[in-house]
Amino acid sequence: MSARNAAIVRIRIITGIVLLAALVLVARLYQLQIISYDTYVARGEGQYIHTVQNLYDRGSIYFTTRDGEKVSAATIQSGYTLSLDPSRVKDPNTLYEALKSYLFIDKETFIHRATLENRVDVEVREALTEEEALTIKELKLSGVTLKRQHWRYYPGGPLAARTIGFVGYTGKTDEEVPVGRYGLESYYEDILHRESEKLSVNFFAELFTNIGSLISEDPEKKEGNIVTTIEPTVARLLQNELQKANDVWQSELTGGIIINPKTGEIYAIDAVPTFNPNARGTSTLDHFSNPLVGARYELGSIIKALTMAAGIDSQAVSSNTTYYDAGFLEIDTETIRNYDGRGRGTVSMQEVLNQSLNTGVAFVVKTMGQQRFLEYFNKLKLGSETGIDLIGEIHGDMENLNTTRSIEYATASYGQGIALTPIAATRALAALGNGGMLITPHLVKTIEYEDGTQKEVMFPEGERVWSEETSEEITRMLVTVVDEALRGGKVKLAEHSIAAKTGTAQMASATGGYYDDRYLHSFFGYFPAYDPQFLVFLYTVNPQGVSYSSETLTEPFMNITKFLINYYNIPPDR
Q1: What is the CATH number of domain 232-282+295-567?
Q2: Which residue, of 23, 298, 311, 334, is most buried by count of CB atoms within 10 Å of its CB?
Q3: Furthest CA-CA distance within the chain
Q4: pTM here?
């Protein structure tokens, strides 16, 4: 045999030995990882009692600071569950005394659970810390079991709770994994959900048992985390201002939105009373839903700004157009009046906004024509869903405009007879200052997948509602409202222009008609007025002992405005 052939034989022998060794190694690993997996897991996890594959997992939700830093809004926290085996409990009273500092249940409940018959696993406390669990373990108490546990945790507590939502059980099965309930937790369930068995999967198990599923995996159903547009400091400020207003005026509910009127990014959206998702025991179902997207209201005079913009864009009126205000109008055998019943004589469209005259916007509708008015309100999509990425959004109610009756159009011009969701109203109001475009309000900006990739969430561009010239003129008029009319011009800022309008509306009765003593107050404004970075929308339901929204919502609006200008270092624009 030649030297060359001998070398080839040796190489083949060595290659064969290496392949054989690899096969033996793989077979051994398969034995350990697959066939004897349960045995070794049981041994390893016996120290912790709870098995690995039952540990709960879920994707994270993040806030985003003004500097682009991520802050945890919803995450997974680790700890232990404290359970009892009643068959091994010798003295329940003594055991209670040993554990009472770790329990959230009273002695009677503990004794009942510790003496249950035919039970070997009764939970008496969850969410123990590592330190608490180690201390209990050192006591070596008979009948006590500590189980490793993961649970959903919300570091901000009540912060943006109605928006974030929470996880819970649907009640369909006894062994189901918690799923998103309400808010972003529900809307992005497909992204945040984790299959529990994936916690115990390893490379070799996947290699031998999941090759087919890995190949056929749907790339659109990848798991990941979501990064929101919510700014935590801004969200905290909004919640505090809403709570103060709600407390002062003893309202049923107070809500608000802070949004970028150009991009649709929402910095904060909230309503109080709210709840703590880490401790929901005393909360009601009303606390969990989000009325900013899931409730309709007749919002009152803030809608006058939309009516005036439609009139300007249709060239029916301008800021200098005048009409004679008698204080009332008779339409279709009915009478509409200004809020105070007084007439002002000959006044301009600017004064219609300054003094919030119902007869003035009714004049605008009459001048431009009902059909043209309806076309603009349809362009604003006030009766449609906005497409915001929150569960439970409903559409507005514009049914009153499916008629030729002039009275319905007159009342709609000042925000009565049509019911809108706050988010739909906010979207429409943003078009006043952003050049006349509809936006898509949204809360999530990025999805970060577990495989290391990420996707910027794109939302559809809106349609044009009116011209940039109309946007500029209505903005100029709304700036004048703040500078001259809102509390007599006392709240204007010397260095920053603000465009704003108040609204007060009678609340509709469930039996028909309107209450004489129940009102909804609303307020919106955007700034800097001619290049707006923020739009703030506020409302409060049935405030007590007060008549107008200028009294209830001006202060919280200005507090929020001043904070945002300073926090984001908005340069002066005048």
Answers
A1: 3.40.710.10
A2: 311
A3: 121
A4: 0.84
Q: What is the per-residue pLDDT across 484-540, written as a single tens digit (0 to 9) for each?
A: 999 999 999 999 999 999 999 999 888 888 998 999 999 999 999 999 999 999 999
Q: Assess contact for 164 and 229: CB atoms under 8 A.
A: no
Tokens for 230, please give them: 């919510």
Instruction: Specify the CATH superfamily of domain 56-228.
Output: Penicillin-binding protein 2a (Domain 2) (3.90.1310.10)
CA angle 205/210/214 to nearest 5° reads 125
Pairing of strands 61-64, 224-228: parallel
pLDDT given at position 127: 84
Q: How far apart are the first and last CA of the chain?
A: 97
Domains in the chain: boundaries:
3-35, 56-228, 232-282+295-567
Model confidence over 410-455: pLDDT tens digits? 999 999 999 999 999 999 999 999 999 999 999 999 999 999 999 9
The string of DSSP letters for 387-421 reads --SSTT----B-GGGSS--HHHHHHHHTT-S-BB-
Q: In the structure, what pLDDT confidence band is assigned to residue 364 with cuts at 50, 70 and 90?
A: very high
Q: Are 359 and 325 in contact (CB under 8 A)?
A: yes
Helix, coil or strand: residue 15: helix
DSSP run (H or E) holding 329: strand 328-331
pLDDT above 80: residue 203:
no
DSSP-assigned beta bridge partners for residue 455: 447
| 13: its two tokens | 């022998």
Tokens found for residue 213: 């599923």
* Structure tokens that stand for 477 in this block: 């008029």
pLDDT of residue 2: 60
C-alpha to C-alpha distances, 516 to 82, 508, 520, nearest whole angstrom: 56, 10, 12
Q: Which of 204, 200, 198 is nearest to 451 (CA)?
A: 198
